[in-house]
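Quick one: co-fold with glutamic acid.
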Amino acid sequence: MGFFENVNQYFDQAAQFSDLSPGLLEQIKACNSVYRMRFPIKRDNGSIQVIEAYRVQHSHHRLPCKGGIRYSEMVDQDEVMALAALMTYKCALVEVPYGGGKGGVKINPRNFSENELERITRRYTFELVQKNFIGPYSDVPAPDYGTGEREMAWIANTYMVLKQNEPDSYACVTGKPLNLYGVPGRKAATGMGVFFGLRALVDVSEDMKALGLKAGLEGKEVIIQGLGNVGYNTGVFLQNAGAIITGICEFNGAIYNKKGFDIEKVFKEFRETGSLRKIEADKFIEDSSAGLEWPCDILIPAALENQITKENAPRISAKIIAEAANGPVTPDAEKILLSKGILIIPDLYLNAGGVTVSFFEWLRNLNHVAFGRMDKRQEAYQSNSILQLMQKMTGKKIDEKVFTDLTNGPDELDYINGALEETMTRSYHDIRSKSIKSKTSDLRTAAYLLAIERVSEYYTTAGIFP
Ligand code: GLU
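Sure, here it is.
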């Protein structure tokens, strides 16, 4: 079964809990526009290579469409459609007012030089501009697997050169570098969102008790698959909160250590040598997929889709699966995992931190002013007055560090991370409440149900254009 069909299967499962009409459900589920392109680029050796690429706009119920661009050899139309659909539900779930979109370029970036990648990215952007598949109010890409700030800078620059009279043109893409209209915190946002989501989950003691676990992240044993941007940042935040990273899986090997790893050290070594083999560990195995089966409290697939299938699901021994990647668990596998009592915290919620901070970046670009610029000083004055009053009333001096921190006022990163924390924590409790109220036996069904209902509100209020 294809990835898009998997997403639709999850959709149908949740739709059974709603009383929306079949026609409306069909409209919410359908993929609105698919742009499949082929374009030539010149390789450094002078030869010509034809590149296959896509941009999909799954839903236009809110505009712009939003979603990353993936560079991977596995890209095909089905994958991009599935990922675009997930974006629609993800945005609805965390109340980020966008339709879902996704892009994909079928290349392995490791096989191209930086100059070649720049030519591919600029040409891809040019194609999107020509067909109106990019723009601050129509469709706003972002990083995804295989892309990052560098690619987003090329996209922004190409768009701005082509649309010189649009004052908002740099809001055409998010995940840009800080010195090219990006915002602080975007790069770590998905990982930080995963952390906030997991924290919200493990803080509910009665749910943890049902799994035979204590509440809180402290001491939880964690295995992470994928040391990319999401996996690495998730690991850092969890480690700082007292979790123990006992296992790390990469494409060419997996390591296990009962006492835990220092994620920063492992990351550095992996970046430098491209391998986990030399890291001191209880175990190293070459077949990294077997690493997913090692016992742990929380297993975090943070790489690609289809990692846990009906084939390996019976051997998974984690208590919680945290889907930092999109689509890591297939519907068949999910049935097996749920029957084993494993709790799954689903992708459409858990990795929504990236698009949430993308939303803040887009808003900042349209506002043309940094978050906090208008209130930082006022907040600092207010804190100062309160602290002075407290000192006067109690006759005690407040700790100097606390005093300075509070009277400096928040900076832009504080505003962004605070809003991300609020979004992820609130959304978790929205899903949990939905699950209890609608008696869904799992969180994914509740998350889809909530997303479907939120998207449906648009159509039931605005109607369908004849
Ligand atoms: N590619 C990320 C995702 O799958 C981020 C999308 C965005 O920021 O628009 O959610």
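If it helps, The first strand starts at residue 33 and ends at 42.
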